[in-house]
Structures are given as C-alpha cells and as structure tokens.
Amino acid sequence: MSGPSLRPTVVLAALAAFACGDIGAPTRNDFYDWRLVVLTDVGTDTVHFHWARGDLPVRVWAAEDEVPDLPSHIQRAVDTWEAAYLYGEFRGQLVSDSISAQVIVRGVPAPPEAATRATRLPSALAPECRGATDVDIAPDLTQLRLPIRIYLSPRVSPDSPGLTECLALTAIHEIGHAIGIFAHSPNPDDIMFADPQVDLPSELDLGTAEVLYHVPPTLEAVGP
C-alpha cells in the first residue's frame, strides 16, 4: 500500500521487540505496547493516539437496525472502558446523529474498500461474529482523520447460541482500539488479544489503557 503519499500500512506484530522500553510512561510493568507500527516508503514508524480532554465525551453512533441490540453492546463497551480510568481520561456518549459522530459503528462486514484505507485493524475474535476497526491516518503520520469506523457483524443466524456473547466481547475489543489501544496484546488472557478468550478487560488491558493516556500522542484527531 506504500506509494508516493507514504500511505501507511499496518504491521500486525505485537511489537514485542520494543518491550515498551522507549515509551515515556508512568513507572509500571502491567501493560503491553499499544502503538501501531506502520510501513512507509522510507521504513517503519510507530504512531499512537488518545483522545484529548477537549474531545470528551467522544461522540459514538451505533446503527440500530443492522444487528440486534448493537447500541446496547456499544454502550456497555464504552462504560467498560470509562470505568478503567480514575480521573475521566476517557468518556464516551452515544449520539443519534451519525454526521457529527467521532466514532461510527455499523452492524455489517467491513466493506472491501476498507482495505485501501490508511490503516485497517482486523480481529479474529469468537467464531459467531467478526469485528474490525478502521482508522485513517494522514500520510505525514500526524493526524487521525475522523470518524473512526467500527464494523461488527454476525457470522451465524441471529438466534444462534453464543452470538450475543460474541457481539458483547467484540464490541469491547473494538472500542478498545477506538480509545487508542491500536496494537493487539500478545496475551490470550487479554480482551485486546487478536482472538480473545475472555469477555472483559484484564488487569493488563486496564494497565495499558491507563498508561497510554499519560503518554503524549503522536496523532491529533481532526474531523467532526
């Protein structure tokens, strides 16, 4: 996907080689590297992001007529990540107008053209459903162009056992990407693992969510 515009491409590695040693964050060990590695025409770079105080509460719109109870799943996911913060570093609010939303959630598969966006963050998750979060990063790696787009879609019939649970944990996983945990955790016991076996954030997820909001972001959100 690299070209004259230095359009970045995701590297899906867990960044284990960095071991978070170059991140200027509060002194603690209970976190993993959340940054996104991108490929450019001149090599690789890392970017990371968190919502600024002035952007809060983040406006989230979820389609009501595509997946059963999708807004409820997204509200629970937002509440789950809000609870990770002692000082309100992240807050989200479901809104009824998609035009002004900073995060848009659809209950459909990610469209084919999503693969041509600046960055695509896929996740394999539970078998009953699938999820993906697409973010658009400017070629100079300084801006995150809003809205962030999340896709949650069933892979089974609506009344199949396990679908509700899959949508619930997938919603938390994808909102985790939207708050700034761009990379997948290398640990299967974390909700941000590429194919998580848990339905709520672990202590490691919560530690990562806290630390990333105390590190200056390299990306500025621009848009709605």
CATH class: Alpha Beta
**Under the CATH scheme, which architecture would be assigned?**
3-Layer(aba) Sandwich
Query: What is the CATH topology assignment?
Result: Collagenase (Catalytic Domain)
Order of helices and strands: EEEEHEEEEEHHE
What number of structural domains do the residues give?
Answer: 1
Helix % is: 10-25%
Write a concise synopsis of the structure shown.
The chain has one domain (9-222): Collagenase (Catalytic Domain), CATH 3.40.390.10. The protein has three helices and ten strands.
Give a structural overview.
This protein is of the alpha/beta class and 224 residues long. The protein has one domain (9-222): Collagenase (Catalytic Domain), CATH 3.40.390. Helix content is 18%, strand content 24%. It is built from three helices and ten strands. It has helices spanning 70-82, 163-179, 203-212; strands at 9-11, 36-40, 43-47, 58-62, 92-94, 103-106, 119-123, 129-137, 143-154, 220-222. Strands 4, 5, 6, 7, 8, 9 and 10 form a seven-stranded mixed beta sheet that branches. Strands 1-2-3 form a three-stranded antiparallel beta sheet, with no helix packed on it. Residues 1-28 have low confidence and may be disordered.
Structural features:
224 residues, alpha/beta, Collagenase (Catalytic Domain), three-stranded antiparallel beta sheet, 3 helices
Would you spell out the secondary-structure blueprint of this structure?
Elements: E1 9-11, E2 36-40, E3 43-47, E4 58-62, H1 70-82, E5 92-94, E6 103-106, E7 119-123, E8 129-137, E9 143-154, H2 163-179, H3 203-212, E10 220-222
